[in-house]
Amino acid sequence: MSELFVRTLREDPADAEVPSHRWLVRAGYIRRVAPGLYSWLPLGYRVLRKVEEIVREEMDAIGAQEVHFPALLPREPYEATGRWAEYGDGMFRLRDRKGADYLLGPTHEEMFTLLVKDLYSSYKDLPLSLYQIQTKYRDEARPRAGLLRGREFVMKDSYSFDVDEEGLQKSYDLHRDAYIKIFNRLGFEYVIVHAMSGAMGGSASEEFLALAEYGEDTFVRSPGGYAANVEAVRVPPPPEVPYHDAPPAHVEDTPDTPTIETLVALANARFPRSDQSWQPSDTLKNVVFSVKEIDGSRHPLAIGLPGDREVDLKRLAAQLEPAEAEPFSDADFTSHPLLVKGYVGPQVLGLNSPSKIKYLVDPRVVSGTRWVTGANVPGRHVFDLVCGRDFTPDGTIEAAEIKNGDPAPDGSGPLRLARGIEMGHIFQLGKKYAEALGLKVLDQNGKLVTVIMGSYGVGVSRAVAAVAEGTADEKGLCWPRELAPYDVQLLATGKDEALLASAVDLAVQLDEAGVRVLLDDRRASPGVKFADAELMGIPTIVIIGRGLAEGRIELRDRRSGEERQVAVADALAEIVAVVHGRSAAT
Ligand code: ATP
Ligand code: MG
């Protein structure tokens, strides 16, 4: 410790939003360079390499082979797949001295596809899985939470290549099993959820989410075991309702009711229902967005959903990707005079309507459902407007918020919401990249077929933070043994030279026994040494102090705080047993 390049901090860094960030900086594992950019200090770098090692071992175990691409990549392959445009502001772009365009790789599908195309040509060469552990660059809109969302970060990405769907399924299953092993070894609690495949195209897709209160991903679980990222939840549509006996739609004066609450209150006061009171879910809220396509063009999109729900902007974004939705501005309303802000109704919406504005509805808005909704006149609403009779949407969209207690798609009961951090993502890409870049092989019949790919990512640097997040306590970091930068932190607490000499002696013996020891040989007070050891989170703390005079030293478990005295003569064997998990106590 007297030589280790580290300075622990007693105060939280000002920009730390989440525990992992706070503790990793305070314990001297990482230092911030700029938003989303961090330097790894010796302690942190050891943990990062341990995560890499676990990932490497499990990838090698399924027969995947490690390669390494540049991080600096030419534009052309990304142009060919459309991602040069699709990635938008998220990609770091640069020019060389000759004016040629380059990028810093945010993910490498194109490069792997081209490499395999370069060298392989027959079904006999497949299946193949390749991976790399690589620094990735993404100009994230909100780099936050330290390593959890960096602009430069370490990812393991792998890609599988098969001749047919069956092969792809096998490669996918192998990766899925490898990921289960990786995340079990990393030692945090996680769930596997259905996911959207996003900008990459493709079909089957699952995410591994670490359970975390501060996670950016919201997912749902059902009593029957269904689990999905909220972005991927498909709302089960209710049965259609017959509407032959529905009264005709009628427009009513509803002054000063621009919000659902004011509308429901007024409806109950002025137009009471005979069966029950009006609820927000009886109203149809129409929210208009301005959609920006990747070519820069814009068009409005109206979304109709039950008034007791908001549009979930992440769910909407996942549906529209790579296009983006922005709120409809006052200027937009001015240039679309058919839309009356606060009173927008379906009768002026739809591609075939006078406004020609695309109108998509929540899946709950099925044929025969009856609504109270805007009449496209200030201060007026229409009642008993029947879907399928009085208006016909252009389709449905999964953009409404998912609420705790919503019925699960598997019919097993209510959905429960929770938060997590995306640690890994596996998905069946299909032929998108192989088609765009012409990766074909000859099949058994001598026919050229397009290769089918899968793509699989693990957030390696993010895992360091996620494990820290999941294991830290109120005193600091608390590493699981497999990831800890050292096995033992050995504290010499006292001024006596003989005490330090014994500590050095034990450290040397432990070192020879293959135990990685961090010896605190500083001329600092015991209080400082204890506090630093707790902050740094090395799993076993050994204290050589006052007890030495009676031939005793102390072993302390960082996580449980459990302490025990052992005789000096037994110390080596005891510590080795603890470190190798052969001892029940400590
Ligand atoms: P997110 O939704 O969190 O932005 P993503 O869907 O963009 O993630 P992928 O493109 O699937 O992520 O990347 C694979 C893995 O890389 C993710 O599962 C995650 O663990 C990690 N990762 C992605 N973006 C970042 C980032 N900005 N910082 C650290 N790790 C990241
Ligand atoms: Mg992302």
Please explain how this structure is put together.
- The protein is of the alpha+beta class and 586 residues long.
- Helix content is 26%, strand content 28%.
- It has 14 helices and 29 strands.
- The strands form six sheets. Strands 3, 7, 8, 9, 10, 11, 12, 21 and 24 form a nine-stranded mixed sheet that branches. Strands 13, 14, 15, 16, 17, 18, 19 and 20 form an eight-stranded mixed sheet that branches. It has a five-stranded mixed sheet with strand order 26-25-27-28-29, with helices on both faces.
- β5 and β6 form a beta hairpin.
- α1 packs across α11, α2 packs antiparallel against α6 and α2 crosses α11.
- The longest helix has 22 residues.
- It is globular and about 95 Å long.
- The two termini are 23 Å apart.
- The mean pLDDT is 94.
- The protein binds adenosine-5'-triphosphate and magnesium ion.
- The site of adenosine-5'-triphosphate has 15 residues, from β8, β21, β24 and α11.
Outline the fold blueprint.
Elements: H1 19-26, E1 30-34, E2 37-40, H2 42-61, E3 65-66, E4 72-74, H3 76-80, H4 83-86, E5 92-95, E6 101-104, H5 109-119, E7 128-137, E8 152-162, H6 165-186, E9 190-194, E10 205-211, E11 217-221, E12 227-229, E13 250-253, H7 260-270, E14 283-292, E15 298-306, H8 313-320, E16 324-327, H9 330-335, E17 358-361, E18 370-374, E19 380-386, E20 395-396, E21 416-430, H10 432-437, E22 440-442, E23 448-450, E24 452-459, H11 460-471, E25 488-492, H12 497-512, E26 517-520, H13 526-536, E27 540-544, E28 552-557, E29 563-567, H14 568-579
Parallel strand pairs: 3-7, 14-18, 15-17, 17-20, 25-26, 25-27
Antiparallel strand pairs: 1-2, 4-6, 5-6, 7-8, 8-24, 9-10, 10-21, 11-12, 11-21, 13-19, 14-15, 14-16, 18-19, 21-24, 22-23, 27-28, 28-29
The structure holds adenosine-5'-triphosphate (ATP) and magnesium ion (MG).
